[in-house]
Amino acid sequence: MNEPVVSLAGVTRSFEQGGVRIDVLRGIDLTVMPGEIVALLGPSGSGKSTMLQAIGLLEGGFGGSIRIAGVEAADQPSSGRTALRREHIGFVYQFHHLLPDFNALENVVLPQLIAGTPREAAEGRAGELLGALGLAKRLDHRPSQLSGGEQQRVAVARALANRPALVLADEPTGNLDEATADKVLEQFLQLVRGEGSAALIATHNERLALAMDRVVRLHDGHLS
Ligand SMILES: Nc1ncnc2c1ncn2[C@@H]1O[C@H](COP(=O)(O)OP(=O)(O)OP(=O)(O)O)[C@@H](O)[C@H]1O
Fold first, then answer.
1. Is the pTM of this model over 0.90?
2. pLDDT value at position 182?
3. Ligand 1 atom 16, closest CA
4. 169, 92 contact by CB (below 8 A)
5. Band of the pLDDT at 139, cuts 50, 70, 90?
6. For the chain, which domains are there?
7. Closest CA to 23 of 46, 7, 43
8. Cβ contacts of residue 175 below 8 Å, gap of 6+?
9. Which residues, judged by CB distance below 6 Å to any ligand atom, belong to the binding site of ligand 1?
10. Other CB atoms closer than 10 Å to residue 145's CB: what's the count?
11. Mutational test site, ligand 1, from 12, 13, 22, max ligand atoms within 8 Å of CB
Protein backbone atom coordinates (compact mmCIF):
# COMPACT_ATOMS: atom_id res chain seq x y z
CA MET A 1 0.00 0.00 0.00
CA ASN A 2 1.10 3.56 -0.66
CA GLU A 3 2.59 5.48 2.22
CA PRO A 4 0.77 8.73 3.17
CA VAL A 5 2.69 11.88 2.22
CA VAL A 6 1.71 13.33 5.56
CA SER A 7 0.02 11.96 8.62
CA LEU A 8 -0.82 13.91 11.74
CA ALA A 9 -1.90 12.26 14.98
CA GLY A 10 -2.97 14.25 18.02
CA VAL A 11 -1.20 17.41 16.88
CA THR A 12 -1.51 20.26 19.37
CA ARG A 13 -0.31 23.86 19.49
CA SER A 14 -0.91 26.50 22.12
CA PHE A 15 0.15 30.12 22.26
CA GLU A 16 0.59 32.23 25.34
CA GLN A 17 -0.25 35.88 24.88
CA GLY A 18 -0.27 38.34 27.78
CA GLY A 19 -0.50 35.53 30.31
CA VAL A 20 -3.48 33.99 28.52
CA ARG A 21 -3.11 30.57 26.94
CA ILE A 22 -4.88 29.87 23.66
CA ASP A 23 -5.15 26.24 22.54
CA VAL A 24 -5.28 26.67 18.78
CA LEU A 25 -4.83 23.04 17.72
CA ARG A 26 -6.29 20.58 20.22
CA GLY A 27 -5.55 17.22 18.67
CA ILE A 28 -5.46 17.17 14.89
CA ASP A 29 -5.57 13.86 13.02
CA LEU A 30 -5.14 13.91 9.26
CA THR A 31 -3.76 11.62 6.58
CA VAL A 32 -3.08 12.80 3.05
CA MET A 33 -2.29 10.18 0.42
CA PRO A 34 -0.05 10.70 -2.64
CA GLY A 35 -1.77 12.79 -5.29
CA GLU A 36 -4.69 13.73 -3.05
CA ILE A 37 -5.84 17.35 -3.10
CA VAL A 38 -7.41 18.45 0.18
CA ALA A 39 -9.11 21.75 0.97
CA LEU A 40 -8.62 23.10 4.49
CA LEU A 41 -11.54 25.30 5.49
CA GLY A 42 -12.13 27.15 8.73
CA PRO A 43 -13.08 30.56 10.06
CA SER A 44 -10.48 33.30 10.39
CA GLY A 45 -8.27 32.58 13.39
CA SER A 46 -9.23 28.89 13.54
CA GLY A 47 -5.60 27.83 13.05
CA LYS A 48 -5.27 26.97 9.35
CA SER A 49 -1.93 28.77 8.98
CA THR A 50 -0.73 27.25 12.25
CA MET A 51 -1.58 23.78 10.95
CA LEU A 52 0.26 24.38 7.66
CA GLN A 53 3.27 25.63 9.63
CA ALA A 54 3.20 22.42 11.65
CA ILE A 55 3.22 20.26 8.52
CA GLY A 56 5.82 22.45 6.82
CA LEU A 57 8.15 21.87 9.78
CA LEU A 58 8.83 25.60 9.81
CA GLU A 59 8.42 26.04 13.54
CA GLY A 60 8.63 24.07 16.73
CA GLY A 61 6.28 24.03 19.68
CA PHE A 62 3.88 21.40 18.38
CA GLY A 63 2.73 18.34 20.31
CA GLY A 64 1.71 14.99 18.83
CA SER A 65 3.02 13.15 15.80
CA ILE A 66 3.84 14.67 12.39
CA ARG A 67 5.07 12.16 9.83
CA ILE A 68 6.29 13.31 6.42
CA ALA A 69 6.70 10.47 3.89
CA GLY A 70 6.71 8.04 6.80
CA VAL A 71 9.38 9.84 8.83
CA GLU A 72 8.50 11.14 12.30
CA ALA A 73 9.59 14.79 12.30
CA ALA A 74 10.00 15.00 16.07
CA ASP A 75 12.68 12.28 15.95
CA GLN A 76 14.77 14.33 13.54
CA PRO A 77 17.39 16.94 14.42
CA SER A 78 16.84 20.38 12.92
CA SER A 79 18.96 19.46 9.87
CA GLY A 80 16.81 16.35 9.32
CA ARG A 81 13.61 18.40 9.43
CA THR A 82 15.06 20.87 6.93
CA ALA A 83 15.99 17.98 4.63
CA LEU A 84 12.47 16.51 4.92
CA ARG A 85 10.96 19.87 4.07
CA ARG A 86 13.29 20.49 1.10
CA GLU A 87 12.83 17.01 -0.28
CA HIS A 88 9.08 16.61 0.03
CA ILE A 89 7.29 19.94 0.44
CA GLY A 90 6.55 22.99 -1.71
CA PHE A 91 4.88 26.15 -0.40
CA VAL A 92 2.56 28.76 -1.86
CA TYR A 93 1.61 31.69 0.36
CA GLN A 94 -1.04 34.37 0.06
CA PHE A 95 1.66 36.86 -0.88
CA HIS A 96 4.03 35.63 -3.59
CA HIS A 97 7.37 36.19 -1.76
CA LEU A 98 9.22 36.15 -5.08
CA LEU A 99 12.75 37.57 -5.17
CA PRO A 100 12.30 41.10 -6.58
CA ASP A 101 15.66 41.32 -8.38
CA PHE A 102 15.20 38.06 -10.30
CA ASN A 103 12.91 37.48 -13.26
CA ALA A 104 10.12 34.88 -13.38
CA LEU A 105 12.32 32.16 -14.89
CA GLU A 106 15.13 32.75 -12.39
CA ASN A 107 12.70 32.64 -9.46
CA VAL A 108 11.70 29.12 -10.54
CA VAL A 109 15.24 28.06 -11.44
CA LEU A 110 16.84 29.08 -8.14
CA PRO A 111 15.27 26.52 -5.79
CA GLN A 112 16.24 23.80 -8.27
CA LEU A 113 19.88 24.94 -8.33
CA ILE A 114 19.87 24.93 -4.53
CA ALA A 115 18.56 21.34 -4.68
CA GLY A 116 21.45 20.39 -6.96
CA THR A 117 19.69 20.29 -10.35
CA PRO A 118 22.03 21.27 -13.24
CA ARG A 119 21.24 24.72 -14.65
CA GLU A 120 20.11 23.56 -18.08
CA ALA A 121 17.65 21.04 -16.69
CA ALA A 122 16.43 23.58 -14.13
CA GLU A 123 15.79 26.17 -16.84
CA GLY A 124 13.98 23.61 -18.97
CA ARG A 125 11.72 22.62 -16.09
CA ALA A 126 11.06 26.25 -15.12
CA GLY A 127 10.16 27.10 -18.72
CA GLU A 128 7.77 24.15 -18.91
CA LEU A 129 6.00 24.98 -15.66
CA LEU A 130 5.68 28.66 -16.47
CA GLY A 131 4.50 27.78 -19.98
CA ALA A 132 1.82 25.47 -18.56
CA LEU A 133 0.63 28.39 -16.46
CA GLY A 134 0.37 30.67 -19.50
CA LEU A 135 3.50 32.69 -18.72
CA ALA A 136 5.69 31.72 -21.68
CA LYS A 137 5.89 35.38 -22.70
CA ARG A 138 6.68 36.63 -19.22
CA LEU A 139 9.84 34.66 -18.42
CA ASP A 140 12.12 37.68 -18.30
CA HIS A 141 9.75 39.89 -16.33
CA ARG A 142 10.58 40.76 -12.77
CA PRO A 143 7.84 40.41 -10.13
CA SER A 144 7.14 44.17 -10.20
CA GLN A 145 6.47 43.87 -13.94
CA LEU A 146 3.84 41.17 -13.45
CA SER A 147 0.18 41.39 -12.43
CA GLY A 148 -0.93 39.94 -9.09
CA GLY A 149 -2.32 36.82 -10.79
CA GLU A 150 0.89 36.37 -12.78
CA GLN A 151 3.00 36.76 -9.64
CA GLN A 152 0.98 34.04 -7.92
CA ARG A 153 1.36 31.75 -10.92
CA VAL A 154 5.14 32.18 -10.75
CA ALA A 155 4.92 31.32 -7.04
CA VAL A 156 2.97 28.17 -7.97
CA ALA A 157 5.64 27.18 -10.52
CA ARG A 158 8.35 27.78 -7.92
CA ALA A 159 6.53 25.59 -5.37
CA LEU A 160 6.34 22.73 -7.88
CA ALA A 161 9.82 23.15 -9.32
CA ASN A 162 11.49 20.44 -7.23
CA ARG A 163 8.61 17.97 -7.74
CA PRO A 164 7.44 17.94 -4.11
CA ALA A 165 5.22 15.07 -3.00
CA LEU A 166 3.16 17.62 -1.06
CA VAL A 167 2.26 21.24 -1.80
CA LEU A 168 1.10 23.38 1.12
CA ALA A 169 -0.84 26.46 0.11
CA ASP A 170 -2.04 29.13 2.53
CA GLU A 171 -4.82 31.13 0.86
CA PRO A 172 -2.88 31.08 -2.40
CA THR A 173 -5.38 33.32 -4.19
CA GLY A 174 -6.50 35.31 -1.15
CA ASN A 175 -5.19 38.66 -2.39
CA LEU A 176 -6.61 38.39 -5.92
CA ASP A 177 -9.97 39.53 -7.24
CA GLU A 178 -12.56 36.78 -7.54
CA ALA A 179 -12.28 36.15 -11.28
CA THR A 180 -8.46 36.06 -11.21
CA ALA A 181 -8.49 33.91 -8.06
CA ASP A 182 -10.74 31.35 -9.76
CA LYS A 183 -8.53 31.19 -12.82
CA VAL A 184 -5.25 30.93 -10.90
CA LEU A 185 -6.64 28.28 -8.57
CA GLU A 186 -8.00 26.27 -11.49
CA GLN A 187 -4.58 26.33 -13.19
CA PHE A 188 -2.88 25.51 -9.91
CA LEU A 189 -5.11 22.47 -9.35
CA GLN A 190 -4.69 21.29 -12.93
CA LEU A 191 -0.91 21.54 -12.70
CA VAL A 192 -0.75 19.83 -9.29
CA ARG A 193 -2.91 17.00 -10.66
CA GLY A 194 -0.75 16.71 -13.75
CA GLU A 195 2.36 16.54 -11.60
CA GLY A 196 0.78 13.93 -9.31
CA SER A 197 1.61 15.93 -6.18
CA ALA A 198 -0.63 15.94 -3.15
CA ALA A 199 -1.80 19.31 -1.85
CA LEU A 200 -3.32 20.80 1.27
CA ILE A 201 -4.86 24.16 0.45
CA ALA A 202 -6.18 26.56 3.10
CA THR A 203 -8.97 28.72 1.78
CA HIS A 204 -12.04 30.66 2.88
CA ASN A 205 -13.75 29.89 -0.39
CA GLU A 206 -16.23 27.02 -0.05
CA ARG A 207 -17.00 27.05 -3.75
CA LEU A 208 -13.36 26.60 -4.78
CA ALA A 209 -12.93 23.95 -2.10
CA LEU A 210 -15.55 21.81 -3.81
CA ALA A 211 -13.24 21.47 -6.83
CA MET A 212 -10.80 19.52 -4.67
CA ASP A 213 -10.81 15.81 -3.78
CA ARG A 214 -11.70 16.24 -0.12
CA VAL A 215 -12.66 19.02 2.28
CA VAL A 216 -11.61 19.11 5.93
CA ARG A 217 -12.82 21.78 8.35
CA LEU A 218 -10.97 23.26 11.29
CA HIS A 219 -13.16 24.41 14.15
CA ASP A 220 -12.46 24.80 17.87
CA GLY A 221 -9.05 23.20 17.44
CA HIS A 222 -10.37 20.03 15.82
CA LEU A 223 -10.75 18.82 12.25
CA SER A 224 -13.97 17.42 10.90
N1 LIG B 1 2.95 33.47 17.17
C2 LIG B 1 1.74 33.57 17.75
N3 LIG B 1 1.60 34.04 19.01
C4 LIG B 1 0.39 34.13 19.58
N5 LIG B 1 -0.76 33.76 18.99
C6 LIG B 1 -0.69 33.29 17.73
C7 LIG B 1 0.56 33.17 17.04
N8 LIG B 1 0.31 32.65 15.81
C9 LIG B 1 -1.02 32.47 15.74
N10 LIG B 1 -1.63 32.84 16.88
C11 LIG B 1 -3.06 32.77 17.17
O12 LIG B 1 -3.53 31.50 16.78
C13 LIG B 1 -4.83 31.59 16.19
C14 LIG B 1 -4.84 30.91 14.85
O15 LIG B 1 -4.10 31.69 13.92
P16 LIG B 1 -3.92 31.23 12.39
O17 LIG B 1 -3.17 32.31 11.72
O18 LIG B 1 -3.36 29.88 12.37
O19 LIG B 1 -5.43 31.19 11.90
P20 LIG B 1 -6.03 31.07 10.42
O21 LIG B 1 -7.13 30.08 10.48
O22 LIG B 1 -4.93 30.82 9.46
O23 LIG B 1 -6.63 32.52 10.20
P24 LIG B 1 -6.88 33.37 8.84
O25 LIG B 1 -7.91 32.61 8.06
O26 LIG B 1 -7.40 34.67 9.36
O27 LIG B 1 -5.55 33.50 8.14
C28 LIG B 1 -5.19 33.07 16.16
O29 LIG B 1 -6.04 33.36 17.26
C30 LIG B 1 -3.86 33.75 16.33
O31 LIG B 1 -4.00 34.99 16.98
1. yes
2. 87
3. 47
4. yes
5. very high
6. 32-62+77-219 (3.40.50.300)
7. 46
8. 94, 95, 148
9. 15, 17, 22, 24, 42, 44-50
10. 12
11. 22
